[in-house]
Specification:
Length: about 300
Amino acid sequence: MNEGGANMATARIAVSVGYIGQGFSGSQYQPDRHTVQGVIEDILTQLGWANGEGHAMTMSSRTDAGVSALANVGSFDMDRSIWLSAGSRGVLLALNDQMPDNCVVTKAVEIKPDSNITDASSRTYLYRLQALEGWPKDVTIKSMTGWCSLFEGTHDFNNFSRFVDGRPTERTVLSCQPWVDPTGVILGFRIEGVSFVWNQVRRIASAIQAMAAGKITPEQVEAALKHVDVPADFGLAPADWLVLWSVGHADITDSVWMESPSIHVGSEVTPRGRAYRLWSARVRREQEAMLLAEWLDSVIL
């Protein structure tokens, strides 16, 4: 899709897209793979809404296979006459009527014709550390807050990313805080930034788990952030427990896009050994239920 050219005969539509990551090979289109972008582009083609050459859909944020999203953001161009006739309600009904059960579009708004949806002002992720095998039950909010704060600010995250030749690894983390359930139990952490390097949040999650288990020290993490010429690898946490929670964009003025709804997720001590496999399967369903509950009101029109 041509993100630059303005055409009065077309309308650029931004949509909020939620999905359960276990059913997809990531958000971005990949040939012969089941991806979020690919699913929506197929539906746009079937509806006759795919305008122009190349990909009909642009996704704001790339998520890996297994990573879920409460609200990723995408955009596409469609005939203005169709948009004026159908409106937001009609677009949502048409898209969701053909969407698989593990993917939903919750909002549709018109944005400026030259708006680039990839230029997000913020991206917020949640990572559920409590679902990792070996997560200690005695972690305090004070300790967790201190570990999270290590990653705030502008750093070179070369030691916390998947290597991609030539791509810069300096990023600014606007906020990193504990994710706590209503009973005060630490579930994980919430991290917000303008953009992230590949695998950054999952590598941060692995480092926090290692600090919680006493396998590494905060000083080692600080050194890995400061001395990027010295290789450091604290592991890569699984994708299953990562959720893209929200995306902010300057051209989307509706505040609902920026909200982070209340989270009510039951919690308990993480088991070990053979019991962990069954427990994690139950918690995975619980995490899916959390997303489904947040989407429910948005798709009832």
